[in-house]
Q: What sequence folds into this?
């Protein structure tokens, strides 16, 4: 596993690999790796000749009141985990190389970025779209891997890749969960024991939606009411949003037809977590 810090060196490495006919797969992360990240790495190994993983905690996707400074960082442990996968390159760009003084250009994916998490984190997806654009330009992959855990993010990146003519295949992979259904997340490390136990209610609520729809419920208001009541049984959990939407447009729906995205964000104490489930009505 080669470690590259310099964006120019990364660019040239990839260019050379591609000139030899190699298919470059890319997994962007913010580190504090868990099995969710590693499932992306595993798939990248299968689908590419050269696998590049990046670790970069992107300052411009955090608002000033958010957890950029405290975000879990453990590059030593991450490197050990990645060594088991024999990836080709770990790209670790320093922040001042990606965002030098005077940086002024941002990428905005309209409409999709304003829904769901965009309402409470208005500059978040512009930060995400900008860093992913930069990483795509530097790594120049043939295929890039993202988790459905961040459903809105992968949709925005697909839209951006299409709109900006990136010749990159975007692959989305299922959410990896803990034993009790909680979606794996680097932020789960913030939870104390009690909060960790309560956090399982989020996936329980999403699973309830699935069961109710399988039993024939089609009324979204009734479904959301039941989900909210269930989540309300855990006093430490405060919903930011819970909604049912079209999985392609994120437009909210009133009744269940075909595939529907149930998505939520919630504060467990001070920790904001997100989760979602795409449910299909027969
Ligand atoms: P992050 O380090 O949180 O920016 O995540 C890097 C990538 O890993 C993103 O594409 C995430 O969607 C994906 N990811 C995070 N958590 C999970 C999970 N539990 N299952 C699958 N993919 C995940």
A:
């Amino acid at each position: 596993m080669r470690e590259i810090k310099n964006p120019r060196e990364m660019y040239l490495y990839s260019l050379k690999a591609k000139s030899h006919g190699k298919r470059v797969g890319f997994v962007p992360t913010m580190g504090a790796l868990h099995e969710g990240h590693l499932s992306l790495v595993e798939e990248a190994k299968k689908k590419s000749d050269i696998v590049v993983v990046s670790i970069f905690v992107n300052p411009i996707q955090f608002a000033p009141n958010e957890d950029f400074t405290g975000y879990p960082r453990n590059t030593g442990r991450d490197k050990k985990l990645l060594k088991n996968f024999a990836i080709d390159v770990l790209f670790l760009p320093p922040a001042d190389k990606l965002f030098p003084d005077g940086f002024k250009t941002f990428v905005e994916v309209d409409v999709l970025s304003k829904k769901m998490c965009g309402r409470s984190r208005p500059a978040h997806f512009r930060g995400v779209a900008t860093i992913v654009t930069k990483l795509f330009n530097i790594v120049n992959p043939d295929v890039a891997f993202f988790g459905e855990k961040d459903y809105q993010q992968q949709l925005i990146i697909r839209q951006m890749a299409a709109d900006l003519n990136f010749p990159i295949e975007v692959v989305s992979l299922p959410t990896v969960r803990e034993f009790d259904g909680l979606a794996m997340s680097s932020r789960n490390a913030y939870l104390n024991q009690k909060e960790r136990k309560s956090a399982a209610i989020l996936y329980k609520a999403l699973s309830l939606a699935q069961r109710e729809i399988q039993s024939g419920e089609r009324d979204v208001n009734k479904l959301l009411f039941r989900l909210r009541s269930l989540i309300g049984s855990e006093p430490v959990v405060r919903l930011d949003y819970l909604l049912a939407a079209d999985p392609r447009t994120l437009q909210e729906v009133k009744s269940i037809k075909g595939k529907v995205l149930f998505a939520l964000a919630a504060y467990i104490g001070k920790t904001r977590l997100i989760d979602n489930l795409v449910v299909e009505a027969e």
